């Protein structure tokens, strides 16, 4: 860990403008510090206050935090609420039924607006349809859908009847989908016939059919299909149903089912350093509180804002900052079906101009690729668009390099808009370490300070605090309401993975390395300390890709590492040993392409290795352990300066370099 040193020598500091401070909900550093002090003084009282102010409770809670079964913490356990009621009904009841909830822009640019009243009716109809199909409270429903109003409706409808949803990103393969359906024990699957990307229709129902045919899915009694394109699909009578037909046969009221605050709202699969993806289980009360509260704080959300988060509902960002947070606040948000580069790389800027977006939240990868595009073609440069509606910019998912930050700040935000670099994870439920736009002076590349109530710290391998300026392991010292509750069906994996005994058993281990600035105490994230890669902000376990490669009949052995990449942050590099002799020349090129396609089919296109190198062997110690640090150096094209004396087969390095 001592190898992690501060890489941040960033002298630029951007203090928030007086006007921004004056209008902000958390106005100035003193206000931020007062909230932190409140949490430090009375931790439970602080969270209880926020939970009462932010959410509507069907049965008020008396208990706040229960640590008796640590690390299986509970929050607001004796309280009851319904997430969908909080996201829809209460706004309509408060007289905001005509407020636009979703401005949906399709791939082809067509725009649909849905008010809170409409959305409530659509969610209620679909909730009734799920009930009619026999889906009950506590059942799991897998949602495998494009970015769509229907996807959000499906999530909210599950929440309304107390079913637990598990959304699977529409880019995942049939095999990945199958594994998730089986692991979560789904009884129903909601999908679409096809999805539209870059003007092209891509199959979803066909992949879902394949996934369900792979076995282990007998519990899935219903497949509900949204008709997005009308493209040709297969149909299994009795099992398959059109979403619109089911919904239209139903009434547009459906009483929300109150659930306990700890009831699992959803399970979302994410990659870890070992084993198959894990189902991160979230609660209802604590999760929803934080999704709403963080949007208010981090983006200083106000009722007039037009919020746009460009994430997909298949990831945690799309859960917290599309499907739940904005709706819980009664916000108006843009939801986008397409991609930032089609019909051209000006799409984001054009949409911000068109919808007068005020709060914009995207990933560093997208920013970096749009920088490149606008350098190459002035027509797609943000300067060509009217972005004056923007008020606050955000980033998420990976570290943002200071150059990209400055470009975003100057060219998109016109030097007016604070950038909130939000550090968080699938497991944390919502933002954890982030600037507050009307308070925190910004330093490019740093996610700055923990939100009030979040006890983030940096420790060494034994769980001891390290001084500022010294790198270490990022942990959270106290439980918080939106934290992961369990790894679905694997409590041991939850306990040992997130609260390892080596750190004392009570610290939440984030899996990232970090350092705090000597003077300001600001956090900078240095990336994962485990075998998890971050490619375009997507988490991928190296183990998962290795298993996919060795599942190919030609492959004997494979090792996967990450390499820094200008656009995607990290790129996947695979070292492969075939059962046959090592291929050379054209044959190696062809085999590499085949294996890339194979990984795309096994996991999904996001996991395809950028670079595949063949060797007769892998660099191993005499005890047979693959020396990954050597592979990382080889992947980067670095000269090997490490000690290779323990290496069984030093000659292999020439083959793989
Ligand atoms: C990384 C995405 C640096 C980090 C919300 C974390 C970040 C992982 C940032 C979680 C950031 C996320 N700066 N790194 N602002 N935000 N990360 O679960 O490595 O898909 O552990 O959640 O992304 O990825 P996940």
UniProtKB/TrEMBL annotation:
PROSITE patterns from the UniProt entry: AMP_BINDING
Organism (species): Paraburkholderia acidisoli
Binding site for CoA: 197-200, 317, 536
Protein name: Acetyl-coenzyme A synthetase
Ligand binding (ATP): 397-399, 421-426, 512, 528, 539
Protein family membership: Belongs to the ATP-dependent AMP-binding enzyme family.
Stretches assigned to the AMP-binding enzyme C-terminal domain: 544-625
Pfam families cross-referenced by the UniProt entry: ACAS_N, AMP-binding, AMP-binding_C
UniProt enzyme class: ligase
GO molecular function: acetate-CoA ligase activity; AMP binding; ATP binding; metal ion binding
Keyword terms, alphabetized: Acetylation, ATP-binding, Ligase, Magnesium, Metal-binding, Nucleotide-binding
GO CC field: cytosol
InterPro entries: Ac_CoA_lig, ACAS_N, AMP-bd_C, AMP-bd_C_sf, AMP-binding_CS, AMP-dep_synth/lig_dom, ANL_N_sf
Entry-linked SUPFAM superfamilies: Acetyl-CoA synthetase-like
E.C. number: 6.2.1.1
Source lineage: Bacteria, Pseudomonadati, Pseudomonadota, Betaproteobacteria, Burkholderiales
Function: Catalyzes the conversion of acetate into acetyl-CoA (AcCoA), an essential intermediate at the junction of anabolic and catabolic pathways. AcsA undergoes a two-step reaction. In the first half reaction, AcsA combines acetate with ATP to form acetyl-adenylate (AcAMP) intermediate. In the second half reaction, it can then transfer the acetyl group from AcAMP to the sulfhydryl group of CoA, forming the product AcCoA.
Gene name of this polypeptide: acs
Catalyzed reactions: acetate + ATP + CoA = acetyl-CoA + AMP + diphosphate
Residue stretches making up the AMP-dependent synthetase/ligase domain: 94-480
Location of N6-acetyllysine modifications: 625
PTM annotation, UniProt: Acetylated. Deacetylation by the SIR2-homolog deacetylase activates the enzyme.
Ligand binding (Mg(2+)): 550, 555
Domain Acetyl-coenzyme A synthetase N-terminal: 32-87
């Amino acid at each position: 860990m001592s190898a992690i040193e501060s890489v941040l020598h960033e002298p630029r500091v951007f203090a928030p403008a007086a006007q921004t401070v004056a209008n902000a909900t958390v106005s100035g550093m003193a206000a931020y510090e007062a909230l932190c002090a409140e949490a430090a003084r009375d931790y439970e009282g602080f969270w209880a206050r926020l939970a009462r102010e932010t959410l509507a409770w069907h049965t008020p809670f008396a208990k706040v935090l229960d640590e008796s079964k640590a690390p299986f913490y509970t929050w607001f356990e004796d309280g009851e609420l319904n997430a969908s009621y909080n996201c829809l009904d209460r706004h309509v009841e408060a007289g905001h039924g005509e407020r636009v909830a979703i401005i949906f822009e399709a791939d082809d640019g067509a725009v649909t607006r849905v008010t809170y009243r409409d959305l409530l009716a659509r969610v209620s109809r679909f909730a009734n349809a799920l009930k009619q199909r026999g889906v009950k409270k506590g059942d799991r429903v897998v949602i495998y859908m494009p970015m769509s109003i229907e996807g959000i409706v499906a999530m909210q409808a599950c929440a309304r009847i107390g079913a637990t949803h598990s959304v699977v990103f529409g880019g995942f393969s049939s095999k990945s989908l199958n594994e998730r359906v089986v692991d979560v024990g789904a009884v129903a699957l909601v999908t679409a016939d096809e999805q539209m990307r870059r003007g092209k229709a891509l199959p979803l129902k066909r992949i879902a059919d394949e996934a369900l045919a792979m076995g282990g899915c007998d519990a899935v009694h219903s497949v509900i299909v949204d008709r997005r394109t009308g493209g040709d699909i297969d149909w299994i009578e009795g099992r398959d149903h059109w979403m619109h037909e089911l919904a239209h046969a139903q009434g547009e009221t459906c009483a929300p089912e109150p659930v306990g605050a700890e009831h699992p709202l959803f399970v979302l699969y994410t990659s870890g350093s070992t084993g198959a993806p894990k189902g991160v289980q979230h609660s209802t009360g604590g999760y929803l509180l934080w999704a709403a509260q963080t949007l208010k704080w981090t983006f200083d959300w106000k009722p007039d804002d037009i919020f746009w988060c460009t994430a997909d509902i298949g990831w945690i960002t799309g859960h917290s900052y599309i499907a739940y947070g904005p709706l819980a606040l009664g916000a108006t948000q843009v939801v986008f079906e397409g991609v930032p580069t089609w019909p051209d790389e000006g799409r984001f800027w054009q949409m911000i101009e068109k919808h007068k977006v005020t709060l914009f939240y995207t990933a560093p990868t997208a920013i970096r690729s749009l920088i490149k595009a606008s350098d190459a073609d002035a027509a797609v440069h943000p300067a060509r668009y009217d972005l004056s509606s923007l008020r606050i910019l955000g980033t998420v998912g990976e570290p943002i390099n200071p150059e990209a930050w400055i470009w975003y700040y100057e060219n998109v935000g016109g030097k007016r808009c604070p950038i909130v670099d939000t550090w968080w994870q699938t497991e944390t439920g919502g933002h954890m370490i982030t600037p507050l736009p009307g308070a925190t002076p910004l330093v490019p590349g740093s996610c700055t300070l923990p939100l009030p109530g979040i006890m983030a710290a940096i420790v060494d391998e034994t769980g001891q605090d390290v001084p500022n300026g010294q790198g270490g392991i990022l942990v959270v010292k106290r439980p918080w309401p939106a934290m992961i509750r369990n790894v679905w069906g694997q409590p041991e994996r939850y306990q040992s993975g997130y609260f390892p005994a080596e750190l004392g058993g009570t610290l939440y281990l984030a899996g990232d390395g970090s350092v705090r600035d000597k003077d300001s105490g600001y956090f900078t994230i240095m990336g994962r300390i485990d075998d998890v890669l971050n490619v375009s902000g997507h988490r991928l376990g190296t183990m998962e890709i290795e298993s996919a490669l060795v599942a190919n009949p030609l492959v004997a052995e494979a090792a996967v590492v990450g390499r820094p990449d200008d656009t995607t942050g990290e790129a996947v590099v695979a070292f492969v040993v075939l059962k046959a002799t090592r291929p050379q020349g054209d044959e190696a090129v062809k085999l590499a392409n085949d294996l890339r396609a194979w990984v795309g089919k096994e996991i999904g296109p996001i996991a395809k290795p950028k670079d595949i190198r063949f060797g007769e062997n892998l660099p191993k110690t005499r005890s047979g352990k693959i020396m990954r640090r050597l592979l990382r150096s080889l992947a980067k094209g670095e000269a090997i300066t490490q000690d290779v004396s323990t290496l069984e087969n030093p000659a292999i390095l020439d083959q793989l370099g």
